[in-house]
Each structure stands twice: as C-alpha cells, then as structure tokens.
Design a protein that fits this description.
The complex is a heterodimer of chains A (112) and B (880). By secondary structure, chain A is α+β, with helices and mostly antiparallel strands. Helices cover 60% and strands 14% of the residues of chain A. A 3-stranded antiparallel sheet of chain A has the order 1-3-2. In chain A, α1 crosses α2 (28-38). Chain B folds into 4 domains: 2-72, no CATH class; 144-334, no CATH class; 352-530 and 754-878, no CATH class; 551-732, no CATH class. Chain B contains 28 helices and 21 strands. In chain B, a hairpin with a 6-residue loop joins β2 (165-178) and β3. In chain B, α6 (94-123) crosses α16, α13 packs parallel to α16 (453-479) and α26 runs antiparallel to α27 (843-869). The chains are: A alpha+beta (112), B alpha+beta (880). Chains A and B meet through α2, α3 and β3 of A and α1, α2 and α4 of B.
C-alpha cells in the first residue's frame, strides 16, 4: 500500500514539475487541471492529493511558491519551477520507465 | 544534505503549525472556488457545482493528515502536544502537584547533596587538579598495620625504584608563623618535592612554580608559592606579588608564584596557603634532620601510574624496593613494607571515616526517596481512578493503550523532572551551606564540594527513576482498564484499591525504617551531648603555641614551658594552668601508643596500646579529673625524680588486673616510666564511649616543642583570659603567635560538628517523612471513602451510627498500616542489630516510633472517615 502511494507520489511530483516547466507559474487548481487534461482523467479523483506533493517538492526546493492573484483576482498560492535540474530527474524517470517497460515485455521463452 | 534540509524545514514548520494550517485552508478554498466556477460555467446549479467540486477534490481530512505528516516532525509535535497536555493536567491539581514536587525535590535534593560529597571524595579529591582520583598513595606500612609516612631519603630512593609510577611526589604539612616580630600569624603550608606542581599538572596564575632543581640540595633558593586566597587577602591580588618577601618562621622567602584558584594542597580537606621546597626544611624547621634521617618519616608520597602500567605492577615494585631498603637500612626500615592505596583511603585525614558515614546516609536517604515515590504513586493512583472515566472515554474514541499509558507517563515524568530541578537547586544550596559552615580549627578545613554536571545528571537520573517508579502502578492500572466498564462505572463500583493499599503498607514500612534510624541517630547524638565527660570543660580556655624551629633541644623546650606556666599562674584571674600535647574530644583523635607494663604479659599477638597524653603538673586540677591514688607529677624543674607516668582506672583494670599500680614501670619507645598515680577515667575520643586505658606522661620527662595551654578561670569567665594569655606569650617571645584560642566548650562544639550535620538532616527529615506518610494515608483513605459514598449512605440509612462507620474505615486501613509498620520495625531491628551488634535495643525508640507513626496514621484515616460518616444518607443515595 505504502509503496504504491510512494510510486504514485513520485510520478505525480514529476508531472507537477513538468507542468510548471511548460506552463510557468501556476496555482494548485491550474496544475490539477492541466494534469487532468493531459493524463486523460487519470487524476480525476482526489485532486487534493496534489497538495502534500506540492509541499514536499517545495521543501526539497524543487519548486518555490508565493502568494499572487488568480484569474478572478483573488489571493492564490502560485508555484514556480525551482532551480533544480528537471532534466536529470526526467531522464531518471524515463530510464526507470524503460526498464520496467522492458521487464514486462519479457516473455517466458525469452529467458529459456 | 537534502534530508537534513528537509528535517530543518520540518522542524521550523512544527513551530509554525498555525500559519501553515491557515495556508492550506486558503489553498483548498481557492481550489474549490475555481472548480465550482468551472462547473457553473458548464451549466450546473450552484449547489451541485460546489458538490461536484468537493467530490473531485477528495477527502479533505485524509489529505490534511497527509499534508501534516509531510510537513512537520510527527514525533516532536506529539511530544510537545503531550507535554502541553501534561502541563495542563498538572495545573488542574495545584495542591497535589505542589505536594508531589516539593516532597520529590527534598528527597532528590538531600540525595544529591550527599552524592556530591561522595563524588568529591571518590572522584575529585583535589580541586583544580584534573584526574586527582587516579593518584595512588605510596605508603610505607609497618607490620602492625600502621602508616608511619616516608622519610626524605626513602622518597629519593623510591623515585627511581618504582618505574610503574610516573612521578612520585613528596609533601609534608608544616605550621608556619608568618610576619614580623610581635605580629606573627599562624598559617599552614606544605614542604614539597620539586616535581610537586608539574606532577599535579598545575599552571601558575602569576609567576612560576618551584623548579625541580630547587628541591635537590639542602639550603637552595628560599622561595615560596602562595595560594590564590592568600594572594587575594594578603596582597590584595596585586600582580606585582612575584619577588616580594615573606617572613616565614623567621626566614625571608621570596614569593615566586600563585597557585590556581581552587587548589588547596594535596591533603584535602585541609587547606594550605604556602608551598616551599622540601629542601628548605632545615631552615624553616629549626635544624630538623628530616632530610638526612631515615627515621624521620615526615613525608607523604603520592604518584600516578604510567600509561599502561597496572597497580599490581607498581605494588610489586614498591614492595621489592621496601624490602631492599629494609636490608640496607635495618635501623630505620626493618619490618616496614609498602602498600599502594587509592587516594580516598588516605590513612591520615577524614576521607576514610567520611566515606563510610556518607554511604550509610546515602542508603537511608535513598530509602526515604523510595518512600516518597511510594507516596507519589499512591497519590497518582488515587487520582488515576478518579480519572478512570476520562481515560475510558479516550479509549472508546480510539486512543491506544500505549497512548493512554504514555499520557500518564508524560504527566508523571513532568512532575518528576520538576521535582528533580527543584531538588538540584536545593542541593546547590545545601552543598554551599555545608561548605561555608564554620570549620575554624587547629587546621583550616575546606570541603571542596560543589554541584557540577555529574551531580546534576545524578539528580535528573534520580528524577527519571522516581518518575518511572511512581508511574508504574497507575499505568498498570490503566492498561487493565476495560473501557466499557470504565464508562459504565460510577462511584458505586467496588473500589480497586488493593494496589493502593499495598503501596500504603510499603510506604509506611519504609517510613518506619527511616524514622527509627533517624531517632536512633538523634538519640545517640543527644546523649553524646549530655553525657558526663568526666572532666570539667566549663571555665577552661584552650590555646596553642608552637616553638618548633627555635628551641634547639628538649631542655630549652622544658624551660620555655616552665616559664610560660609560671607567668600564666601569676595572672590574677587564673585559678590553675597546665600544658598538654593533646586535648580530649578532638576531631583528629588522640594518639594511642604501644607499651609494656611490668607485671602484665600479653598472651595474644600484637602490642598493648593506650591513649597517650603528655601533660604538665597541674593538668588534673585544671581538667577537674580527680587523682584516686598517688600524686601529681613532680615540678617541671625537678631534676631528681625519675621519669613518671600516671595511668587511669581502666588501665589498671585491664593491664594490671587491679593489682597495686604505684611503682610499676611502663616501658615505651621513649624509655621507662614509673607509675606514680591513678586518675579517674574520663572521655578521650567521644562522649558516651566505653572506658579506654590511658597513660599520662610528664612534660618534665618528655618536653615537646608545642603544646595546648589549658587555663581555668577563677571567675568562670574563661573567654576574658584571651588577651592576658596573648600578652604573656608575647612577653616571653615576640615572634610566637598564640593560635587556635577557644574555650573548651567551643572546642567540643566544633568537634561535634561533623556529627551534627547528619543529626540535623535527620531532625528535619524525620518529621517531614512523617508528614509525607500522613498525606499518603490521607489521600488513599479519602479517595477510597469518596468512591464508597453510596455504600456508606446505605449503611447509614439502615441505621448504622456514624461512629461505627468511622471505626470500620479506620480498622480496614489500619490493618494494612500495622502490617507495614511491623515489617519495617522488624527490618529496622535487624539492621540496628547488624550495625551495632553489642548494644542493647533502644526500647524508647523502638516503641516510640511505631506508636507515633500509628497515631499519626490513625488521625490521617480518621479525618476522611469522619467526613464520610457525616454525609446525608439521602444525598448519598442520589449521588450520581
């Protein structure tokens, strides 16, 4: 259970960072919308899970945040990509994903 | 790096919980608003739009938990929360908390004070010297087990012959008369070997220390090192003190340096002010042969093991060296071996004596603390059952058992540490109070006790132990609590008070032991105070003089004493005057000397020994000790009479089996003496002691270079004689100070001082313990009674009289208390039998203490019982 959550958190974290990298500063809702759109409703449930991950990223200084005005001119917390190298993490992820992908493609006869 | 930063951020976040929570709330609100607007645009109704937005967001509370876990440090946050909770809970019971904290503080404070003394003696016996406890005493040892000290030449030999020791240091204590003619002042110092300061690892505050070559040959540089206090008081801390002249025993010494602030010499607790090279001995001590004579064993030696060497190695080398010396110098060293002793076992000095007394005291006080813990456990248990409901609700709401226990634990630990903190403060005050207590005497004494990190750690450790001990019972009780039962239960369930009763019994038992110990001690102290010393101390003035280093021979010592006595006796207010080498009831004791007496053959091995005092004629008159037979000593200038001795009754009884003593010869190391009289027994070492054999010798036959002047005032006002006595001595020799002037009563008071400290401690703690026991009993009974309100109401309604109700409650509790008392009483009996095997059982104490304890206990039961019996039956039945 726990591990699943951790893996999901890792994926979510990367998605958040990619979103911020592409779209620039965003508030939580904006990030949620964007991920929802691009992930084909995978994140339709529990948008709330976004916030602990945002906090974790902020504590790791991967992203920063500040108060700003939202589209309808209300106070909102805006997140912005930090100075950390997203590149490296993306590569790491792609590598891991590739390995796992290959791992699952392996059939019994390949090993014999 | 990253995890560290996260940790720090989290730590910071823990501190700013509120702000962070607010931020999250705002963010969620904003998120929901935006989503709702979106939904509205999609055509939903406002209510539905909001509902959909919330659904999409998911469980807010779960997310919040996740968020918090991510943010702060759960453990610390919980801890802070728990402590805050505990603090709140304690502040709801100020009275109870005060009783608990104060009683713990007293228990811990007293224990910590005693510990600081033990710690001083065992681990830090020399202030300002680090690692002083590692020093070993290098003690020559006679066949009879005496430690005669080492001679200078022996020291020089041992320095090279015990390679397992790094530096062997020699020192001897000497009295100094400092100052110009007519205004000299008595000070104590040490004559030391050249490596003294370097081996102790000391650095001078000003100037330098004695160099090794300065203590090589006799008659080298006349230099002196002074103590910090001496520098401050005599030189006002002037930095130019180096190079100044100090007149010591009529010799000019040049001050070369100042010792570190707390350093007081190597014979703690004696406090020395001056240190001069040992090679100055002949110059300072009037031609003493200390440096050449192997029979003059004036020095003490200490040394530290070389790294890697063991004490056994050093001991073996030391024994070999002493055996060789015994062969080379049979006159001086035959039959003298050697023994390495740990520093705290110093044969000269109070350490050995103190440590055993302190150990007993510590044991008793730990028992007292245990009783305090029992008491506290009881109070907490009583309170715990009152909180049963609260706990049951907490459990029903899902709190784990461990959580409940930890709640109790936090509360108790907080109480315990508050008590320990206050206790440490008490210990700090106590050590200072004991240290600055007046200890003026023949020798300046300063106990370098203090409260340091070890003592503080000890106090906290005691606190933690106490907290755990008195948490045990309530926690155990709560763990077994069935939440449903707890919720259902009102005050009419049968009280589960067995644990409390057992605790009450244990506590009363401990109290009995400690109270009996305290009473026995106090009584022995008081009876000591009021015992008949069998001499008359009232109206006697004591003062000391010392002509060592100025009178070259015995004849001039005798002549000086004779002239001094003549002058003193001619004073109009003096009824009688005498000089003696020793004063009874002295802190340092009176020497016992071996002898043989004509007509007595010793059957068992060893030597006969008797208290030995050298006195002038007239001594027995001044002291008020009657001579039962024979006469007083011959006059001081009488040249014809043979050497004389006077013995006491006990001497005659023990060594002469009551045969006629007059005329028999006593043989001692100093020659043979004819017994010319028998004196009545009197007290020598301590009040209430068993009769001891004693032999008095005459100053005429054995003139000494120092003496204690005894003056009996004609009008009973002995203190008024001080100035006259001073004038007489100044007339005789302007360079001689009269020192250690005190009335005999003051002398006795001072020497009872060491026994007075524990006596006072017991006098204060005894009643306190009684009070604690009473509070404990009261708490248990009143809680038990409160829980039985309904039962009591029923019984009253059915016609029981209040008297019967009271009687029953008292009887129930008193049974437990009586058991506790009986067990404690038996224990005390066994202990006292072990401690003083020969003495009879002290009946007043062994009957009185339980009687007082039981009456106090009865009273403590009666008060809540009476309150319970006065309730209105109808009100009691309606109760809850």
């Amino acid at each position: 259970m726990k591990q699943k959550a951790d893996v999901l958190k890792g994926a979510l974290a990367l998605m958040i960072r990619k979103t911020l990298d592409v779209l620039g500063p965003q508030h939580g809702y904006g990030i949620a919308r964007r991920i929802e759109q691009s992930s084909g409703d995978l994140l339709a449930v529990n948008q709330g899970t976004l916030y602990p991950v945002l906090l974790k990223l902020e504590q790791e200084r991967a992203i920063t945040s500040e108060w700003g005005a939202s589209e309808n001119n209300r106070r909102a917390r805006f997140y912005r990509e930090g100075r950390k190298q997203l590149q490296v993490e993306t590569q790491d992820w792609e590598q891991t994903a590739a390995i796992i992908g290959r791992f699952f493609q392996v059939k019994a006869e390949d090993l014999s | 790096m990253r995890s560290l930063r996260r940790f720090l951020t989290r730590l910071l976040n823990s501190a700013t919980t509120r702000v962070q929570d607010e931020r999250l709330r705002e963010e969620i609100e904003e998120h929901l608003t935006l989503q709702t607007e979106e939904n509205l645009r999609a055509g939903l109704t406002p209510v539905e739009a909001r509902r959909q937005a919330m659904l999409k967001f998911g469980g807010v509370e779960a997310m919040k938990l996740d968020y918090r876990a991510e943010r702060g440090l759960q453990l610390i946050e919980n801890l802070v929360g728990d402590l805050r909770n505990a603090g709140r809970s304690i502040s709801r019971m100020p009275g109870l908390a005060t009783v608990i904290i104060v009683s713990l503080a007293i228990g811990i404070g007293v224990n910590t004070t005693i510990f600081s003394w033990i710690q001083m003696i065992l681990f830090e016996p020399m202030p300002a010297v680090s690692g002083a406890a590692n020093f070993l005493l290098v003690e020559p040892r006679t066949e009879t087990g005496g430690y005669p000290g080492a001679s200078w030449l022996e020291y020089r030999d041992l320095q090279t012959q015990v390679p397992a020791l790094r530096d062997v240091v020699a020192f001897q204590m000497v009295p100094f008369n400092v100052g110009e003619r007519g205004q000299t002042e008595r000070t104590h110092g040490q004559l030391v070997s050249g490596n003294y300061f370097s081996a102790l690892g000391l650095k001078p505050i000003v100037g330098r220390f004695i160099r090794t070559e300065e203590a090589e040959r006799p008659g080298t540089e006349p230099v002196v090192v002074i103590s910090y206090d001496y520098w401050q008081t005599r030189f006002r801390g002037a930095p130019g003190v180096v190079g100044q002249k100090l007149r010591v025993n009529e010799r000019e010494l040049v001050v070369i340096g100042v010792a570190p602030r707390d350093f007081q010499g190597t014979m703690v607790p004696l406090k020395f002010e001056l240190w001069a090279p040992a090679t100055m001995a002949p110059a300072l001590l009037g031609g003493t042969r200390d440096l050449e004579d192997r029979n003059s064993r004036a020095f003490s030696l200490i040394g530290m093991l070389r790294p890697g060497a063991t004490r056994e190695e050093a001991q073996a080398q030391f024994s070999t060296a002493m055996a060789q010396l015994a062969r080379d110098y049979p006159d001086a060293s035959a039959g003298i071996g050697g023994e390495m002793l740990p520093f705290w076992q110093a044969p000269r000095g109070p350490q050995r004596l103190l440590i055993s007394g302190l150990a007993i005291l510590q044991g008793v006080m730990l028992l007292l603390l245990l009783a305090v813990c029992g008491n506290t456990a009881n109070l907490m248990l009583a309170r715990g059952s009152a909180r049963q409901r609260e706990m049951a609700v907490r459990m029903a709401l899902g709190a784990g058992r461990w959580r409940i226990v930890s709640l109790v634990l936090y509360e108790n630990m907080l109480l315990a540490f508050l008590g320990a903190g206050l206790g440490a403060a008490i210990a700090g005050w106590g050590t200072t109070a004991l240290r600055v207590a007046p200890m003026i005497g023949a020798f300046p004494i300063l106990f370098p006790t203090r409260v340091d990190q070890f003592t503080l750690a000890f106090a906290m450790l005691l606190g933690a132990a106490c907290g755990l001990i008195f948490s045990g019972a309530p926690a155990f009780h709560l763990v077994r609590l069935d939440p449903q039962d707890g919720l259902r239960s009102t005050s009419n369930t049968p009280p589960r008070s067995r644990a409390r009763k057992v605790l009450m019994g244990v506590e009363v038992g401990l109290a009995t032991v400690v109270l009996i110990a305290a009473a026995l001690f106090l009584q022995s102290f008081r009876s000591a105070r009021h015992a008949d010393p069998r001499f008359r101390p009232e109206g006697v003035l004591l003062a000391a003089y010392d002509v060592s280093g100025r009178n070259p021979d015995k004849a001039s010592n005798r002549e000086f004493a004779a002239r001094l006595l003549e002058r003193l006796r001619s004073l109009p207010d003096v009824e009688a005057a005498a000089i003696a080498t020793n004063v009874p009831v002295d802190l340092h004791g009176i020497p016992r000397r071996p002898f043989t007496v004509q007509g007595h053959v010793r059957t068992e091995p060893g030597q006969d020994r008797a208290i030995s005092n050298t006195v002038t004629p007239g001594y027995f008159k001044v002291m008020g000790i009657p001579l039962l037979e024979g006469n007083d000593f011959a006059e001081m200038r009488d040249q014809t009479a043979p050497a004389q001795a006077i013995v006491n009754e006990e001497f005659v009884r023990r060594y002469l089996s009551g045969a006629e003593p007059i005329g028999r010869l006593i043989q001692t190391g100093a020659g043979s003496f004819a017994i010319i009289g028998v004196a009545r027994n009197s007290v020598y070492d301590a009040f209430g002691e068993a009769a001891q054999p004693a032999a008095y010798f005459s100053y005429r036959d054995r003139p000494e270079d120092q003496g204690q002047i005894h003056l009996r005032a004609r009008n009973g006002n002995e203190a008024a004689l001080t100035s006259e006595a001073r004038a007489v001595l100044r007339d005789l020799d302007p360079m001689l100070p009269l020192y250690d002037v005190r009335t005999f009563s003051q002398h006795i008071e001072r020497n009872l001082y060491l026994r007075r400290i524990p006596a006072r401690l017991f006098a204060v703690l005894g009643p306190l313990l009684l009070g604690l026991a009473a509070i404990g009993i009261y708490a248990v009974v009143s809680y038990a009674v409160a829980r039985r309100t309904r039962e009591i109401g029923v019984r009253l309604a059915f016609g029981a009289t209040s008297g019967r109700v009271i009687l029953q409650i008292i009887r129930e509790n008193l049974r437990v208390i009586a058991w506790g008392t009986a067990i404690g009483w038996a224990l005390a009996l066994v202990i006292s039998g072990r401690a003083t095997p020969k003495s009879v059982v002290n009946l007043p104490v062994f009957i009185g203490v339980p009687a007082i304890l039981l009456s106090v206990a009865t009273l403590a039961c009666w008060i809540p019982a009476r309150r319970a019996s006065r309730i209105d039956p109808m009100a009691a039945l309606r109760h809850e």
